[in-house]
Every structure is written in structure tokens, then in C-alpha cells.
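Please annotate the following for my students:
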Amino acid sequence: MVELTRQNRKAGVLFAMNKITQTARYRQSLVLYAKKNGVTAAAIRYRTYRQYIYRWMSRYDGTLQSLEDRSHRPHSHPNQHQPEEIKLIDDMRRRNPNAGLVVFWVKLRRRGYSRSISGLYRFLRKRGQMAVKLPNPKYIPKPYEKMQYPGQRVQIDVKYVPIPIFSRGKHAVLSRIDRTKTGWYNPIRKSGFMEAISMSEPIREALFRLQDTQYRAFLCRLIPTADPNTVIGVRTPELRKYAKQLGKSAEVSGFLQELPHAFFEENQLHAFLISEIRDFQVCLDAVDRFLPYVDNWATCDQMSPKAFGKHRDALPEQIRRWIRSDHTYTIRFGIGQLMQHFLDDGFEIKYPEAVAGIRSEEYYVDMMIAWYFATALAKQYDRIVPFLENRRLAPRTQNRAIRKALESFRIPQERKEYLRSLKTKPV
């Protein structure tokens, strides 16, 4: 099928070329006959009109090429690129020779270019200014670090023995592997050693089985405060599903006691497990124990304990304690709980007063304050707008809150127009 298609394409090209040549030869014979017998005789013989013959006689210079059709493309067009646009494209391409079409178009748009990306593509292709693709860098493997003496690097593997093959109680086998040798191990037995064995290993293995490498790259960009070396790359729906399974097992209590965790997904799993705890006091203790180890906005925002919704009367005191903390994500978590539980029926003016009194240079605290007031404007507009009118927030925070409110579909357009007038210039 592919070969047939190629043959047909080649035949079509040859047919077009032959047609052009035959037309030129016809015009040549017409001109030569007219020169010999006159234009009128040629017009009668070839059944055409004299103006046609005169046009080709004036163009003929003795070669067939002079009798072929010229380009029908117009010399100008009202929508063609203007000289200032062409200069802009030339200057930008000279500075960005390797920029792809989309990136190059965006750069031009920021400098006043108003044409479509398809129009830019045709212009660049016509002028031969498409991006120059750089060759892939040559892969240079890193040399493996060799150990110099026994014991310099040792791997310890711990395995639980479910059946008591030793004297009594629970047991574990420790394998000591020395990296300077081909690999030897020294099994050690110890009664009751299971209390010191990490419960995270089987959970970690399960997380790596759910790994998505493309999603891992996306997460590393989305959460800049997380160390890329600690990100496995498990999608949130898969994590939630695994958290429900793990919550029913006996391993969950041991996992919740092991802090800090080594991986970002372990922290996410910890947050989901806390959210499912039904006992309020147990849940509160687990939250207080976990919050100092939270190091990113995703883990902080996805921890939403269900037990808190049934004990709102005991929450304000805890929230005041959280927002007075000096830890970024403890403050953010406290503001998030106010936004989740106290913007509807339980709303009191003292809550936005407390949030407005927070001053922090931390970006993620500032953004949570802005998020709180943007949501509050959608639910309690008349009681929240005086905070913006009286400039109760830091200028940068107020502008962020207004920007988020303008993006909301829950705020009417006439209120958005008024909110725009409340923006301030940062000091």
C-alpha cells in the first residue's frame, strides 16, 4: 500500500511536469507559425485570438522557459506583514534562534505582535526562519564510586520472620551487605526486634508500584518547595484509594507514629489517613504531631479531618493556637480550617479579624490569607468588604485577595467592578 501510494504520487508529479512542457511547446509552435505566416493566419490555424498570440510573441526569447506560466501570487496584500513586524521577527529570531514556534510566538505577542500562530508559521517557513534544532547532548556516563576499604559503605536489610523459628517471641533477620565485596551477609537474631523495624518499607514499596514518572515531573514543577529526590510520582486518586485500603489494616498505627517520612507521597498518605480518623481527640493529637513535618502546600491543603466538622465548638481554640505558630504550614492549615468550617453558619467577625492580623513574609501564608478573604467575599460580602475598604490587609495581600475574587464565579459582576477600585499599590 505504501509503495503504491509513492508510485501514484510520483506519477502525478510527472504528469504535471509533462503538462507544463506540452503547454509551452504548443505556445512555441504557435509563435513560430505566426512569425512565418502572420498573426491572423496563426489565429485561424490554432483557433485562438490575436491578442493571445501577440502576448506570447512578446515574451518569447527562444527558450521554452519563457513560455511557461509565471506565478499567480499577488505582489502585495492588505494583510501582509508590515515592515515593522518583519523587523521585529528578524530581531527576535536573531536573539532566539532555537526557540520553537509556540515559545517564539508568545515572545512576539509580549512585544506587540498581533497575528495568529498559523500566520507566523507560514511567514517563517517562507523565509526559512524556522527554529534551529540543537543536537542532543552526548551522554557521558558517570563513573561508579568504588569503595576503598571494607565497611566504608554497608547495606542493612531487615526482614520480619512471621513464624518463630528461633527461641521465642517476634524475630527479624538482618542482612549486612558490604559494598566492597561481591556481597556477603550476616544474619542476626534478636527477640522482640519488631518494635524497632520500620513499618514504612512495605508501604513505600506499594507506593513505588503506583509510580508514574511523567506525573512525577509535573509534581516537581507544581510543588517547588518539595525536594525532587523525595517525590515518587503517585497520582492523588491512587493515593486516596490506597489510603482507604491502608486505613483498614493493622499497619496504619505504626505508620502514623513514624515521623518524619522520607518521601512526599508518604506525607500525602499520612494526611489522607489523618483525615479519616473519626475520634476527635485522637485526630487532633495526630494533626499536632504531624504539622511540624509538613513542608509543602499540597500536603497542608489536602489534610481535611472529617472529625473536625462534628466538633466545631472545640475548633476555635485550636485554630488560634495554630495561627500563632511560627511554622509556615501550621499557620496555613489554621487559616484553611477557618475557611472550611467558619464562613457559613458559624461565621463571626472575630475570625476575619484574626486572619487580618497575621503578618508574614512567607508566600504560602500570604496566599492562604488572600484565598480566605476571596472566599469570604463570596459568602459574607457585606461584612468582609470593609476590611478591604479600610486597608486592613497588607497591600500585596489585598491585591491577591481581590485578584482571586475577580476569578470567582460566585461574585456578581457589579461587585467585581467595585473590588477592582480597591486595589492598592504595594509599598
In short: The chain has five domains: 2-67, 83-127, 154-197, 199-310, 315-427. Residues 154-197 form one domain. Confidence is low (pLDDT under 50) at residues 13-17, 163-170, 181-197.
